[in-house]
Automatic annotation (TrEMBL):
Coiled coil in keyword set: yes
Keywords, in A-Z order: Coiled coil, Elongation factor, Nucleus, Protein biosynthesis
TM stretches of this protein: none
GO cellular component, one term: nucleus
Domain TFIIS N-terminal per the UniProt entry, residue ranges: 429-507
GO MF terms, alphabetically ordered: translation elongation factor activity
Cell location: Nucleus
Segments forming a coiled coil: 625-652
S-adenosyl-L-methionine in keyword set: no
Record-annotated TFIIS central domain positions: 534-658
Biological process annotations from GO: DNA-templated transcription
Identification of the protein by name: Transcription elongation factor S-II central domain
Residues annotated as domain F-box: 4-40
Length: 665
């Protein structure tokens, strides 16, 4: 019997969607399969162009490789004429010897704009003079998402208009035509909902953000800047990190729900401010604080709290503030905290990332650094705080005195949450001791103790668990639970191991500067080796796939979660689960290995990589997933549609056969 090519008989629309789920290079390579597939790749709607994959480690043939690469992209886009392109991701080297020509990049961008692209992500590694962004980008009637990352210069014309743009990300781009190019651009985006502005260079410009539709704003400056004005009446989420600006002339955020401020200043200058040799800080934060006075949830880093003390002599009334979170740094004081609590009459939840702070006589009656005058009315005594949460509690004498002070001074306190590292570790050790002491298959009090310890570990705060896991070797002693003689211990042990793996995925690496500092993605050299070349290769492939996630995320909250995870740690965990369940790569489950690695590396399946990296899908679950489950949401819907059509056709065929049978009889 001759084998039938069932896939080639599928409709062009279905084949186009299938090809959109693999990389662009792989989609184009299918053109050599047969005449049917010769031009099928033109139906691909998502293009991923990355010349960094073609850069050889040596300089030999580099120019020729790039020349061939540019010719390939030119031909690819030329064959797309008449087809729809929904998304283009373009990452390229420009200006390096043998790199991609900047004029080619501009022509590629203009080409996809002519195709009505909706999602455009351009990231350039630049060496030399930065090329201008094609003016057509800022006149697009179809763009919904736009990310311009480095290596570009923005120069706006008078007829700028982006009527459908909802997400805009600007990462270290240059501006020509005045200081407020960003403000002008935003004003031409009537439905813009999310704006991300990041700057890692030392440049001097003034920015004004004014948008009635803006809902989410993330600003990050890693160098010193002049000023920024904010007017977003419908903004609900605001995150500002990096260096504090010199001025905030106008800040109006009336509908703000959550704000995260992680601002700092040059440490040398800050030392001079503390000891009085420099007077005050060269920044005026009063307008910024007044502008966010309607916020309901406020997160302040320890650096920000200190800057507020030296910058603002007065504090506005925070009538709507119900939750306040304070960062932890033993080199920063709480001088501004008494006034902040006093001016928050409806504050219900107070969270400290730690109680260790710089000892000073200016913390008022919030702490016990120095004895305070008992006749002075305490700001804590008039506070409405009902929930007090302390993270990274060590149980030192100073912390005990501070806790006693809080319990005595907060009259409305109903609940205290204390996250103790030592207690968490003791619970973990108690669970292991109970499991090891169980010898038989029958239930006993020791089994109950193990189950109770596991349940208490499950209820521990995630932040505490992540911190403990990232700084200890806990989890290495769980393997014996899989082979335990007691079935109840085996069952509960699997749950404990799943819990540990989930925490491990979420923990990431310890951050070097503060809680908001971006985590650098580890290289292959940091990954733990097994000594087995096949297993190590699988780990490298998984890590390469997981590293992609950080560049695929736009949402600021999700990006924070992703950057907190270590791809190398997750890759090792997933490969270990694969090896445990499937055996070696060259064994009978080789096809399963290939299926997992393919889906993890699929450029059109970012959801799977993201879920694995942040721990939503652990290694054990990934091994048991079918190919359809691992596919992206789009392919799952398409498979479901094909199944429903096939079922409908089969039902129709059966009805016809039944009718024919009745006529014949």
């Amino acid at each position: 019997m001759n084998a039938k090519d069932v896939i080639s008989r599928l409709p062009d629309e279905v084949l186009g969607r299938i090809l959109s789920l693999i990389s662009t290079k792989e989609a184009v390579s299918t053109s050599v399969l047969s005449k049917r597939w010769k031009n099928m790749f033109v139906l691909v709607s998502n293009l991923d162009i990355d010349d960094r994959q073609s850069v050889p480690k040596t300089k030999q043939n580099r120019i020729e490789i790039h020349r061939n690469y540019m010719a390939f992209v030119d031909k690819l886009l030329d064959t797309q004429r008449g087809s729809s392109i929904k998304k283009l991701t373009l990452k390229s080297h420009v200006g390096v010897r043998g790199g991609t020509d900047s004029s080619r990049i501009q022509s590629w961008i203009c080409n996809v704009l002519d195709h009505g692209v909706m999602d455009l992500d351009v990231f350039i590694t630049l060496k030399g003079k930065s090329p201008p962004v094609p003016a057509m980008i800022f006149k697009s009637k179809t763009l919904v998402k736009l990310r311009v990352g480095r290596g570009f210069t923005i120069k706006l014309s008078q007829d700028v208009s982006l009527p459908l743009l909802r997400t805009l990300c600007l990462d270290s781009v240059n501006f020509v035509g005045g200081h407020n190019v960003v403000g002008t651009l935003i004003s031409r985006c009537p439905v813009l909902e999310e704006l991300v502005v990041e700057e890692r260079r030392c440049v001097d410009w003034t920015c004004s953000v004014s948008s009635p539709s803006l809902k989410r704003l993330h600003i990050r400056f890693d160098r010193k800047f002049t000023s920024i004005s904010l007017d977003a009446p419908n903004l609900i989420y605001y995150k500002h990190s990096g260096y504090v600006l010199g001025k905030y002339p106008n800040v109006k955020l009336d509908s703000l729900i959550e704000a995260r401020l992680n601002l700092r200043m040059d440490e040398t200058r800050m030392v001079g401010v503390r000891n009085g040799s420099l007077g005050s800080i060269p920044a005026d934060m009063r307008n910024l604080i007044n502008g966010i006075r309607n916020v309901r949830i406020l997160h302040l880093s320890s650096h920000t709290l200190e800057l507020l003390y030296f910058s603002c002599k007065e504090m506005p009334l925070f009538d709507s503030l119900v939750s306040l979170s304070i960062g932890n740094d033993k080199a920063r004081g709480w001088q501004m905290l008494p006034l902040l609590i006093k001016n928050s009459p409806n504050l219900e939840t107070l969270i400290f990332m730690g109680l260790d702070h710089y000892i000073t006589n200016r913390c008022g009656d919030v702490c016990v650094c120095y004895d305070t005058d008992e006749s002075i009315t305490s700001c804590l005594s008039s506070s409405q705080v009902k929930v007090l949460e302390i993270l990274s509690y060590q149980g030192t004498t100073r912390e005990l005195n501070q806790m006693k002070h809080f319990l005595e001074k907060l009259p409305c306190l109903e609940l205290v949450k204390i996250c103790v590292k030592q207690e968490f570790l003791e619970l973990y050790e108690a669970a292991l001791r109970a499991a090891k002491s169980v010898k038989g298959v029958k239930n006993s009090p020791k089994v109950s103790r193990f189950v109770d310890a596991r349940n208490r570990l499950k209820d521990a705060p995630t932040s505490l668990a992540c911190e403990v896991v990232s700084k200890t070797s806990m989890g290495k002693g769980l393997s014996f639970l899989n082979d335990h003689k007691n079935p109840h211990i085996r069952s509960e042990g699997r749950l404990l191991r799943d819990l540990w793996m989930k925490i491990l995925y979420a923990s990431g690496r310890e951050k070097s500067h503060d809680r908001e500092t971006q985590v650098k993605i580890p290289t292959h050299s940091t990954m733990k080796k097994t000594g087995d070349s096949k297993r190590d290769k699988v780990r490298e492939i998984l890590q390469t796939s997981l590293v992609k996630v950080a560049s695929e995320i736009v949402d600021t909250e999700m990006k924070t979660r992703v950057t907190a995870c270590d791809p190398s740690v997750v890759a090792v965990s997933v490969e270990s689960a694969m090896f445990e369940k499937l055996g070696c790569f060259m064994g009978p489950h080789k096809a399963k290995y290939r299926s997992i690695l393919f889906n993890m590396g699929d450029s059109n399946n970012p959801d799977l990589r993201r879920k694995v990296l942040i721990g939503e899908i652990n290694g054990e679950r990934l091994v048991t997933m079918e190919r359809q489950e691992m596919g992206s949401e789009k392919i799952q819907k398409e498979v479901q549609r094909i199944k429903e059509n096939a079922r409908f056709k089969e039902e129709s065929r059966m009805k016809i056969l039944q009718s024919a049978y009745m006529i014949m009889t």
